[in-house]
Amino acid sequence: MTVGKRLFDILFSIYLMAFLSPVFAVVLWKAWRQGGPIFYGSERMKTPTEAFTLWKFRTMADDPNDTGVTGGDKAQRITPLGRALRKRRLDELPQLWNILIGDVSFVGPRPPLRRYVEMFPDLYGKVLKTRPGVTGLASLIYAPHEERILEACPTPEATEAAYIRVCIPRKAALDLLYQRNRSFWMDVKLISWTTAKFFPRRIRPMRKGRFV
To answer: Other CB atoms closer than 10 Å to residue 104's CB: what's the count?
Structure first.
């Protein structure tokens, strides 16, 4: 990561924490009324050998045996508040803290679970040469397809198989495409399209450009 990109991450994350503090307050209040833990920490990998805790607002009922990615087999555990947060990606707001302390950047490949890095060390050895991010090319282009694929999976085994067979290679291809073409202005563009998800579709600007 360049010094300029790290400086941007620090300054922009501080700005967003302040600007979005009313949103944080409302979500915290609703989460407190819902009961149970407010935050959910998940072990993710920032390099093939270095792990960290990625923070989110909790969106599902607790399950001590929970493993792997979320598919249709976990749909019944998503809370009403969690469903509303996921729709606009507001559950990921606590990751501004991960950005501030340097675990992730604003833009990059989504940090994978340890189990998948260990399954595909050569692939993730390439992908994780780029600092993981909260958003990125794969997040914007492929995430809707991934959600549809995994939501159709009725069992943990089906979810795992679909994620490994279909989602991992396609997301990795987009992550490596970003890696080869990344620039400051590309990052700004990807961030702008991520924040556009917070607004109604009718007032979003039309996408233009080579990648998005």
So the answer is: 24
Q: What distance in Å separates the CA atoms of residue 17 and residue 79, rounded to the nearest whole number?
A: 25
Cβ atoms of residues 8 and 106 within 8 Å:
yes
Spatial distance between the Cα atoms of 40 and 196, rounded to a whole number of angstroms: 25
Degrees, nearest 5: CA angle 78-153-135:
60
Give the Cα separation of 37 and 62 in Å (integer): 9
Strand 39-45 relative to strand 51-57, pairing: antiparallel
Residue 55: per-residue pLDDT: 96
- How far is the C-alpha of 14 from the C-alpha of 97, rounded, in Å? 9
Amino acid at residue number 170:
R
C-beta separation of 163 from 110 below 8 A = no
How far is CA 94 from its chain centroid? 11
pLDDT confidence of residue 203: 44
Report the distance separating Cα 98 and Cα 177, nearest Å. 24
Per DSSP bridges, beta strands 133-135 and 105-107 are: parallel
CA dist 140 and 109 (Å) reads 11
Strands (E), 58-114: 105-107
Instruction: Flag whether the pTM goes above 0.90.
Output: no
- Given a contact cutoff of 8 angstroms between Cβ atoms, the answer to whether 54 and 98 are in contact is yes
At position 61, the amino acid (one-letter code) is A
